[in-house]
Queue: 2 jobs
Job 1
Amino acid sequence: MKSRHVRLAVVLLIAGLALAIAAIATQQMVEDEREVSIEEVPADVMTTILAEAEGAAIGEIEMDTEDGQVVYEAEVIIDGQEVDIEVAADGTLLGKEADEGEDDEDDEADDEDDDEEEEQIVSLDAIPEAVKATLEKEAAGAEIKEVDMETEDGVTVYEAEVIVDGQEVDIKVAADGTLLAKEVENEDEADDD
């Protein structure tokens, strides 16, 4: 009878260890981070990120699971400095931290990376109010379907293409709402593309 209990205890111990290993493996898979767009985050998270960004363009946003809790971390450039904003899934601000300065060689490498940064499509509601106002004014009532946010020489720029009087017009606006360019696309250029 006693050896039967010992065997049962050993079997239960092995089963428990197997379950623990499976749980740890599952937790590691769940805790993998992934990049998301501003449109994919919950409304409370978006509100907090936009408020903390102080009108600056939102760069990369990562969704991560830390200790079983979903956390969003957004990168923004405020006054020329990269700032990380960390927000809980319920919109609670967990932290706002400016990246410490790096040596000149690292800064030059970062600048080169910024020059090669890809465009990100953002919704009209997710851009700073000053940018939105300038785009709407320059679009002269034309529908703005899509806005691209990109970094040019370390500066965030918003670009929209609209059709005005049958012609495609590219409008570029700085993060502070300053109109940088408004160009009517030449049909010959469009044919060459």
Job 2
Amino acid sequence: MHQDVLEALSLPPRRAGVRGPVAVRASLIAAASELFAARDTSSVSVREIAEAAGVNHGLVHHYFGSKQGLIDAVLDDLGRRAARALDAGLDLSPTGPLARYVLVASKALTTSGDTAGKTSQQSAVALVRRLGQLGTPPVSDEARLRTARLAATFIGWLLFEPVLLRAAGLDDLDPAAVRHQLLESALS
């Protein structure tokens, strides 16, 4: 990948000499996360990910078994980051960990179709359940429906915020304040 493309994607430049299993895995997950956020997971090649991570492309298969294994690892990593962010207080910024998770997960799940990895689906379910814990724990049908509504509203908003602000004539308002009001109304 050319340096100008890496800069345009806000990726770190190729890191020569990434060594050791922990560093290689972390570098591959970080590079894949950035590339998957910028493009559909299906349009990103294993070679591109390895090049952005500064490692040999064969290491993707060595550490993750397949591209889907790497997608699952990225979603698990982003899911953990999003869960920690939720535990620390809800960060609704479009660049926060929850938004990054939603962006990559939605691309992975929609472009993979029926072949989406089991871990990808489990990761999405776990995060939706965590969102549900912001209100009443989802034990009744009503609470579970509220959780589903909250997740759908929140995910849709994170994916389409600029368009929704413009379409609703809200583009003159502070996006953070709109997000906060949206969350409050979804929780009630």
